[in-house]
Amino acid sequence: MSNIINGFQVDITSSELDVHIDKQIAHHQTQVGKWEERVGKLQAVVAARGEVHDSITRGGGLHPRHGDEYDVEQAEMHVGMHKQRAHYLGFLQTHLIADVVYRLGEEDLIRLEFVGDFEERGALVGGCFPQLGRV
Length: 135
Fold this sequence. Notes:
- By secondary structure, this protein is mainly alpha-helical.
- The chain has one domain.
- Helices cover 51% and strands 7% of the residues.
- It has a two-stranded antiparallel sheet with strand order 1-2.
- Helix 1 runs antiparallel to helix 2.
- It is elongated and about 75 Å long.
């Protein structure tokens, strides 16, 4: 009789997981800095022009009322989101058990940012596995 496996799972050592979480925390901290800079630039433009709906593009340029627009409130939301993710991952990292193997399922891989989810990135391929490419 053959073994039956329910779903897909990956075994990852605690040291591998620790390294990965470090990288993801660093990513989120970098994003916090970038978004805070965007908030500052946008607030300066809004104050200088006296316009409430000036915007900022994903690329970081200031372009009032066109392109992928982020107003101050939305940019601040991104700052908060990245701070929250860094804090969450830091919490998980401090509670890793040394010298064990973690068996991770798809939800775990998404939660720990090994891969993105369909809504966020359009596919489960990519993320920290760029050699696999995008679907």
